[in-house]
Structures are given as C-alpha cells and as structure tokens.
Amino acid sequence: MVAATLSACGGESGNGAADDGKITMGFSQVGAESGWRTANTDSVRKAAEEAGIELKFSDAQQKQENQIKAIRSFVQQKVDVIAFSPVVESGWDTVLKEAKDAGIPVILTDRAIDSPDTSLYKTFLGSDFVEEGKKAGQWLVEAYQGKSEQVNIVELQGNTGSAPANDRRDGFAEVIKADPKFKVIASQTGEFTRAKGKEVMDAFLKAHTDIDVLYAHNDDMGLGAIEAIEAAGKKPGVDITIITVDAVRDGMQALADGKINFIVECSPLLGPQLMDLAKKVVAGETVPARVVTEETTFTQEQAKAALPQRQY
Ligand code: AHR
Fold this sequence. Notes:
Elements: H1 2-8, H2 16-20, E1 24-29, H3 35-51, E2 54-59, H4 64-76, E3 81-84, H5 93-101, E4 106-109, E5 123-126, H6 129-143, E6 151-157, H7 163-176, E7 182-189, H8 194-207, E8 213-216, H9 219-231, E9 241-246, H10 249-256, E10 262-265, H11 271-282, E11 290-292, E12 297-298, H12 300-306
Parallel strand pairs: 1-2, 1-3, 3-4, 4-5, 5-11, 6-7, 6-8, 8-9, 9-10
Antiparallel strand pairs: 10-12
Helix pairs in contact: 3-11, 4-5, 6-7, 8-9, 10-12
The chain binds alpha-L-arabinofuranose.
C-alpha cells in the first residue's frame, strides 16, 4: 500500500534513470503540420542531444489515438519521463493515469489539457495562447482606431479542440467585443496547414465580397490564404489586413514584404527548458506548475530588422 502510494505520488527515479544515470524521455509530437512544428521538433531533438537525454520520438500525425498509443508504449518501455504536446485539450485522463500509476512523470509541452486533475502531470511549459489572441485583437483595435464603419473579419482557426485554436479565438474575441464595429463574419478551421488555409480562404472569398481583415491562428494558414487572396486578384496586406501568429521565417518574410500586417510571436524553441525540467522531475525536484514562454510581436518594420537573425 505504501509502495503503491509512493509510486502514485511520483516515484520518478523508479525507472531507467537510476540504473545507468542516463535519462530516457518518451516524446509524443503533434505532427509536422507547420513551420512552427518543424522548428519545435528540431529544438527538442537538439536539446535532448545536448543534455545527454535519450529521446524516443513519436509523430502522432495530428491524431489523438496515435498519441495515446505512443504514451502507452512509453509506459511499457519504462521511460524515465514522458513529454507531449496534446493535439486536443480533452480525453487524456485515462492514459495519463496509467503513466502516473507506473510512476512515470509527465510534462506537458506547448499545449495544455483541460483535465481538473492536475496531479496527472508535473508541469506545463508553453505559451499563453489567450494572451496571443489578445495581442492580435489589441493591434487590430489600434489599427482601426477613429474609423466608424463596420470591419468584417474572417478567422482561420487552428485544429478544432486544440488549446491554441480555443485560446487564440477566445483571447481575440474578448478584446474586439469592446467595439461593435468589429464583426467576425466567418470562422472555420484551416487545421494549421498552408493547404487548408488556402482552401478555406478561397471559400471565404467566394462567399464574401467585403472582407476587411483576416485573422489566422498561425503563419502557415495565413501564407496559404495569401495565395488564395492573390489568385482572387486582391492585394494581401493592402486590400485585406492580415494578422497571424507564430513568426516563423516564411511568415516574417511575408510581413517584411508587406503581405502580412502584424504577427504575434509564439516561440517553438522549447527544447532547452524542456530538458531542464525533465532532469528536475526525474530527480524528484519540485518544479513550477506552469512555465510561460516569453514572446513578443512584430510589425512590418520590426520584421525587416529581425529577419537576418531569425533562427527558424
Ligand atoms: O501549438 C502551437 C501551434 O501549433 C502553432 O502556433 C502552430 O503553428 C502549430 O501547428
């Protein structure tokens, strides 16, 4: 009974770490849907190597069932720590309970889950997505200050049910609701990909002749939308104001070129902090329940200045 309780409370060193001193991390990545995700995967792989942590990497191809399978397999392999970026917010309690019962600590990275049981994971490292949505909304409110006509907004959301899609939508909505001239006339998922962003923007343009603003939950969807806007004979960044999130190199280039008007940064470079946290939780040390990534925003002029040093 005592042993079981200890194990449920952590028991982090009960696995491989104690044997050879080398930490093994099972990492379940969402997929490879965007430039952000590629940069995040690179950051995690590089940081693991630098920290001397053995990484068992699994790509879920945007499917929750693949992530659940990967976590179960990490439990069976008795890894020392599991880290994952949950594709959607809900539906994790059962599998995370299995990891907890096996004494394997879990770290949420990039995205959160919505379980009330916070004992299922040790910490959550990642951005404040609500804040990102608010920053997008605040820039828009300032950009249209003094104008009284209705502003028609279309929104390309991230994957349905994912934390960044929910939070960026809510943060943005909370800010723009203060002024009734802002109206979201269409909102649909573009699944965080360029191809889907283009397809959905194309449909928006066919259904609405009066779009003033596009708010895309990531750069890739914004870049796909730019192709659709140009194909429709309109000038992105001029005829339609475009706000995106991420600030990956291609997005920053489009911002510097005047095709995007504003980008809210979301940093994918989480690898080093993740490895640090992993070492601590495996050693049984207390870590903060939430580690928020530091981020900024970019105007077109700021993008021009930042591009030469941009790492991703
Ligand atoms: O969870 C982070 C989001 O996922 C990024 O903003 C987006 O590009 C990615 O696919």
